[in-house]
Amino acid sequence: QVRLVESGGRSVRAGGSLTLSCDVSLFKERPFCMGWFRQSPGKSREGVATIDHAHNDYYQDSVRGRFFISINKDNDILYLQMNRVTPEDTAIYYCAADREAFWQCFAARTGSIAFANWGQGTQVNVSS
Fold first, then answer.
1. Is 20 exposed, middle or buried (0-12, 13-18, 19+ CB in 10 A)?
2. DSSP calls for the chain
3. Model confidence over 30-78: pLDDT tens digits?
4. C-alpha to C-alpha distance for 6 and 109, rounded to whole angstroms
5. Which residue from 7, 80, 85, 119 could staple onto 20, CB 3.0 to 4.6 Å apart?
6. What are residue 94's DSSP bridge partners?
7. What is the pLDDT of residues 91-105, one digit of tens each?
8. CB 81 within 8 A of CB 100
9. Could you tell me which of 20, 42, 18, 11 has the C-alpha nearest to residue 127?
10. Distances (CA, A) of 6 to 18, 40, 46, 61
11. Burial zone of 7 (CB within 10 Å; 0-12 exposed, 13-18 middle, 19+ buried)
């Protein structure tokens, strides 16, 4: 297992924007599926968005059109651009990466596929 490192979580007003980053440079397996997941207090962890080795991106319904996942050309920094955030987006956000999940990266956007490599999480708080 490889440790990933998220950053960028902060407090933001509803309607605002922020970008999360995840250092995935220690993850060298190819092909891959990488993703962002989140967990709110009292709720189970859910998928937010995933991206595969070919840079195809997939989104959970509640964030499609507002959030955008991307990875830099060297495949060592994973991003989540969050726009028009709402209080319902308040959560700890985790990044994850996995080789075997590549073949299920679309389904993985829901959080239903296991990932072997995780970050420690970064807190996002959205106030109304």
1. buried
2. ---BEEE---EEETT--EEEEEE-TT---SS-EEEEEEE-TTS--EEEEEEETT--EEE-TTTBTTEEEEE-TTS-EEEEEE-S--GGG-EEEEEEEESGGGGGHHHHTTT-S--SEEB--EEEEEE-
3. 999 999 999 999 999 999 999 999 999 999 999 999 999 999 989 899 9
4. 18
5. 80
6. 37
7. 999 999 999 999 999
8. no
9. 11
10. 13, 17, 17, 23
11. middle
74-95 burial string, b = 16+ CB within 10 Å, else e? ebeebbbebeebeeebbbbbbb
- Whether the link from the prior residue into 41 is cis, omega within 30° of 0, is no
Residue type, 120: Q
Place of tokens 């999940």: 101
Tokens of 124: 């996002």
Q: How far is CA 126 from the centre of its chain?
A: 17
CA nearest 81: which of 46, 112, 124? 124
Distance of CA 74 to the CA centre of its chain: 18
